[in-house]
From TrEMBL:
Protein name as annotated: Tryptophan--tRNA ligase, cytoplasmic
InterPro entries noted in UniProt: aa-tRNA-synth_I_CS, aa-tRNA-synth_Ic, Rossmann-like_a/b/a_fold, Trp-tRNA-ligase, uS15_NS1_RNA-bd_sf, WHEP-TRS_dom
Protein's organism: Astatotilapia calliptera
Gene3D superfamilies the UniProt entry points to: HUPs, S15/NS1, RNA-binding, Tyrosyl-Transfer RNA Synthetase
Pfam families reported in the protein's UniProt record: tRNA-synt_1b, WHEP-TRS
Gene, per the UniProt record: WARS1
């Protein structure tokens, strides 16, 4: 009799434990526990929400904030481990060169694009003559774009050229309306203005579709169907874990990630892919956008669609230093695409954080530090000549090259680059924007 009583207590305790584990499971994965149905590989445990990062002195990286704890900037190797992506290593670089038949872009050679997901699969397929498409985007939060905003587009243009593939560019005017104190009209106008800067990067109109969410969502039944599929398969709990949403965020924000996910699926663009569901997608983006695509990759197999592959870039540092990225709202933190040669010169001379020593004597004696010097960092983005860059690095480190001289090299690199951009942008007419933004078949072959 007593024995039976002990058994019942044991069973009760075991049942309680199981129930608790089920609750924990749901909290961590956002899904109900089902026996024999393990959670998917990268179901996100909330380890990158803003709250989690603030308290332990780690780098903070999410779609809305980037701040590093060290003056050298974000520790990107740690980020790879934390996000569970893969490093772009020598082997992958060589493969990209072999498959594309081109020397790797200097953004790849210099580790500016440094991390990826499933790039080998994209190359495997391409080698078997199976094409893929590119997807990138821009949140149009103001008319003014700065040089940092060009990085993904410069790189995407290179990918489009070397692989000869279609590109879709999402302008998330809806996102900016939801997050910022802006009207719908303003956001839509910024889409059109920003589209001109994107077009000025040289994209091929026959291979590129740029779309405003505010326009395309309502115009494309297939796009909206994919949005709804994603919405059905991601819980509030999951997006809270990934993006740090709280109960007081508006419901538009909570469902927005499904809208950024949808262009990852070729069936969202029947006019381009003729209803094909299985054209692989490659997304070049800055690493702060990865949370959106972790979610996308998690949900894709559950709605019968392909996971997109990714190439991640580091951030373009603010003039004040690599601890934070450029911000369009602080005019002195960035070089704008509308800046005059004189403004460029003044901003760099006044604000570019220097890794040099305080006096010429000390600098000559001890040399400068290129790891934290913003002018040098900018040159790694924009000075294409490897030998020149290496020589500058040597001379600056040894003290032969002074900070003022280094700044002058940067000024003389950026001034013509931005002037050329302004010239190309002037050539972009409203009709051209209209053409790029019209849903239509694109010209590509399999
Ligand atoms: N959310 C991005 C931003 O605020 C815009 C964006 C939408 C994007 N889709 C994308 C960026 C795909 C990179 C890749 O800028």
């Amino acid at each position: 009799h007593g024995c039976w009583r002990i058994r019942r207590a044991e069973i009760d305790a075991a049942v309680q434990l199981l129930l608790k584990l089920k609750v924990d499971y749901k909290q961590m994965t956002g899904q109900d526990y089902k026996a024999g149905c393990p959670p998917s590989e990268n179901l996100i445990v909330s380890n990158n929400g803003p709250a989690a990062d603030d308290c332990d002195g780690e780098d903070l990286v999410d779609p809305w904030n980037v701040s590093a704890s060290s003056t050298k900037g974000v520790d990107y190797d740690k980020l790879i481990v934390r996000f569970g992506s893969s490093k772009i290593d020598k082997e992958l670089l060589e493969r990209i060169e072999k498959v594309s038949g081109q020397r790797a872009h200097h953004f790849l050679r210099r580790g500016i694009f440094f991390s990826h997901r499933d790039m080998h699969q994209i190359l495997d397929a391409y080698e078997k003559h199976k094409s893929f498409y590119l997807y990138t985007g821009r949140g149009p939060s103001s008319e003014a774009m700065h040089v940092g905003h060009l990085i993904p587009f410069i790189f995407t243009k290179w990918l489009q050229d070397v692989f000869d593939i279609p590109l879709v560019v999402q302008m998330t005017d809806d996102e900016k309306y939801l997050w910022k104190d802006l009207t719908l009209e303003e956001c839509h106008r910024f889409t059109v203005e920003n589209a001109k800067d994107i077009i000025a990067c040289g994209f091929d109109v026959n291979k590129t579709f740029i779309f405003s969410d505010l326009d395309y969502m309502g115009a494309s039944p297939q796009f909206y169907r994919n949005v709804v599929k994603v919405q059905k398969h991601v819980t509030f709990n999951q997006v809270k874990g990934i993006f740090g949403f709280t109960d007081s965020d508006c419901i538009g924000k909570i469902s927005f990630p499904a809208i950024q996910a949808a262009p990852s699926f070729s069936s969202s663009f029947p006019q381009i892919f003729g209803g094909k569901k299985d054209v692989p997608c490659l997304i070049p983006c800055a690493i702060d956008q990865d949370p959106y695509f972790r979610m996308t990759r998690d949900v894709a197999p559950r709605i019968g669609l392909l996971k997109p592959a990714l190439l991640h870039s580091t951030f373009f540092p603010a003039l004040q230093g690599a601890q934070t990225k450029m911000s369009a709202s602080d005019p002195n933190s960035s070089i704008f695409l509308t800046d005059t040669p004189k403004q460029i010169k003044n901003k760099i001379n006044k604000h570019a954080f220097s890794g040099g020593k305080d006096t010429v004597e000390e600098h000559r004696k001890y040399g400068g530090n290129t790891e934290v010097d913003v002018s040098f960092l900018y040159l790694t983005f924009f000075l294409e000549d490897d030998e020149k860059l290496e020589k500058i690095k040597e001379d600056y480190t040894s003290g032969a090259l002074l900070t003022g001289e280094l700044k002058k090299i940067l000024i003389e690199t950026l001034q013509p680059m931005i002037a050329q951009h302004q010239e190309r942008r002037k050539q972009v007419t409203d009709e051209m924007v209209q053409q790029f933004m019209t849903p239509r078949p694109l010209n590509y072959k399999f």
